[in-house]
């Protein structure tokens, strides 16, 4: 059974989509098939209610229902991290307490938009962790492209020193490889307490992030099985094979990571792979047209041809 999230976490913690039916309602049956799909890919953990999980389009009641269904479907086989980011501390704490009581392994927190200084980020996290208590392990998400809230590696290190419940850092600043390096070098278990570092950004810079010390990936690329195999190869020292595998998938990685339409593309790929019943995203959301689908067909077919070639 998966226990609490720890600083020793490694591997692929896939960012899960939230399935909806054609009417825009949460599709609980597809949550079950999506969990089976991700576990079949060999993921080390599942992160729900992230940006790809459309958390901002769910009510608190829906978010809790989605979390409970994922937790039930996973049944302790891998850790589940639940995104609880919210501009209000009270709803963030309430959802955190509820999902932990339901069986989550930890929560993911992203400093909200509007924090203009390093001191403001520190004060915000100090207040949130003070309200949460020290017993809920959390992943700090750093995604300034979305929030506009930037903070330095030095601030991350200070937060690590201050809050023992901070056990994982999700690196997504872009460009930000030097920030990943700085946090990894400092939080190595000797200078400062060691934490897990997972990388996002759709997997766009996976080889470089792993080479700089990332412990794994936390992204929603629809081919989670590729992420898992890349992770395995890299950790086995087969870095050239890992990069060759990544190169084969790179056109789809890049295509899925388009701002705006990326979620629709990822959900369509998951639908085609049998993981969910529909590619519906809750409004407002882009809808793929005939040209979009044709482009996706072309990229998938090219990938399949590459994978069929003898190495």
Note down, in words, how this protein is organized.
The protein is globular, with a radius of gyration of 19 Å. It has a single domain, classed as TIM Barrel (Alpha-Beta Barrel). An 8-stranded parallel β-barrel has the order 1-2-3-4-5-6-7-8, surrounded by 5 helices. It contains 12 helices and 8 strands. It is of the alpha/beta class. Helix 4 (118-132) links the parallel strand 4 (106-109) and strand 5. The protein has helices at residues 28-41, 60-74, 89-102, 118-132, 144-147, 153-162, 177-186, 206-211, 224-235, 239-256, 262-272, 290-308; strands at 11-15, 45-48, 80-83, 106-109, 138-142, 166-171, 196-199, 216-217.
**What is the β-strand count?**
8
Largest sheet: 8 strands, parallel, barrel
Give the CATH level 1 class: Alpha Beta
* Strand line-up of the largest beta sheet: 1-2-3-4-5-6-7-8
CATH topology: TIM Barrel
| Fraction of residues in H or I helices | 40-55%
Structural class: alpha/beta
CATH homologous group name:
Aldolase class I
Measured by DSSP, the beta-strand proportion falls in 5-15%
Which radius of gyration do the C-alpha atoms yield? 19 Å
CATH architecture classification: Alpha-Beta Barrel
Number of helices: 12
Q: What coarse outline follows from CA principal-axis ratios?
A: globular
Domains, number: 1
Tell me the series of helices and strands, N- to C-terminal.
EHEHEHEHEHHEHEHEHHHH
* Low-pLDDT windows of residues: none
Mean pLDDT score: 96
- N/C terminus separation: 38 Å
């Amino acid at each position: 059974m998966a226990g609490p999230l720890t600083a020793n976490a490694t591997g692929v913690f896939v960012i899960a989509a939230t399935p909806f039916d054609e009417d825009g309602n949460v599709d609980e049956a597809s949550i079950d098939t999506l969990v089976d799909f991700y576990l079949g890919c060999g993921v080390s953990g599942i992160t729900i209610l992230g940006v790809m999980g459309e958390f901002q389009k769910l009510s608190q009641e829906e978010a809790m229902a989605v979390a409970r269904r994922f937790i039930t479907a996973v049944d302790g086989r891998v850790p589940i991290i639940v995104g609880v980011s919210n501009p209000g501390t009270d709803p963030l704490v309430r959802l955190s307490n509820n999902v932990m009581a339901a069986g989550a392994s930890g929560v993911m927190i992203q400093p909200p938009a509007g924090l203009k200084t390093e001191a403001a980020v520190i004060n915000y996290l100090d207040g949130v962790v003070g309200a949460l208590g020290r017993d809920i392990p959390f992943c700090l998400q750093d995604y300034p492209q979305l929030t506009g809230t930037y903070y330095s590696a030095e601030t991350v290190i200070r937060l690590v020193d201050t809050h023992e419940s901070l056990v994982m850092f999700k690196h997504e600043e872009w460009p930000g490889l030097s920030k990943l390096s700085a946090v990894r070098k400092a939080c190595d278990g000797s200078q400062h307490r060691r934490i897990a570092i997972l990388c996002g950004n759709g997997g766009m810079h996976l080889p470089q992030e792993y080479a700089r010390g990332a412990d794994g990936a936390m992204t929603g690329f629809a081919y989670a099985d590729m992420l898992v195999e890349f992770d395995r190869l890299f950790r086995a020292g087969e870095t050239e094979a890992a990069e060759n595998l990544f190169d084969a998938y790179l056109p789809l990685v890049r295509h899925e990571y388009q701002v705006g339409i990326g979620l629709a593309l990822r959900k369509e790929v998951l639908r085609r792979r049998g993981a969910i019943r529909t590619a519906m995203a809750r409004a407002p959301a882009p809808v793929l047209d005939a040209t979009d689908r044709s482009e996706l067909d072309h990229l998938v077919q090219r990938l399949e041809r590459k994978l069929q070639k003898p190495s």
